[in-house]
User: Which sequence fits this backbone?
């Protein structure tokens, strides 16, 4: 059974930084893509970033490019989302997600492409 557990959310002032963690268990994740999504109240869940566990390829939403960095630690089976220069509009519940992918295939960016989800971690950015 795949389990994804997010941590690291909280309250931060605009311009500040936070690092989210997603601890994955239950499988060997070397053939998986790990994504981060976010959902603000009354809005659709939207894509933030994705990383291929196998080769480290990454892709970012335009809204976070240059401010957020996704990375993975194979030894700890953990994916991170480093968020810098945070803005009030980044306020959301952030979710970690996983899906199996074949080598060198395009990274999944749509929520329906993912099979497993974490419980979410609240990030609040005050102005």
Assistant:
């Amino acid at each position: 059974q795949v389990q994804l557990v997010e941590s690291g959310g909280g309250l931060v002032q605009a311009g500040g930084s936070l690092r989210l963690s997603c601890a994955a268990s239950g499988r060997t994740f070397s053939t998986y893509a790990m994504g981060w999504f976010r959902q603000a109240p009354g809005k659709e869940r939207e894509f933030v970033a994705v990383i291929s566990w196998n080769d480290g390829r990454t892709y970012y939403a335009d809204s976070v490019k240059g401010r957020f960095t996704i990375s993975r630690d194979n030894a700890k089976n953990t994916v991170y989302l480093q968020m810098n220069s945070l803005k009030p509009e980044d306020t959301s519940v952030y979710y970690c997600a996983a899906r199996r992918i074949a080598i060198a295939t395009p990274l999944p960016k749509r929520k329906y492409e993912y099979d497993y989800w974490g419980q979410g971690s609240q990030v609040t950015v005050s102005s």
Observations:
- The mean pLDDT is 96.
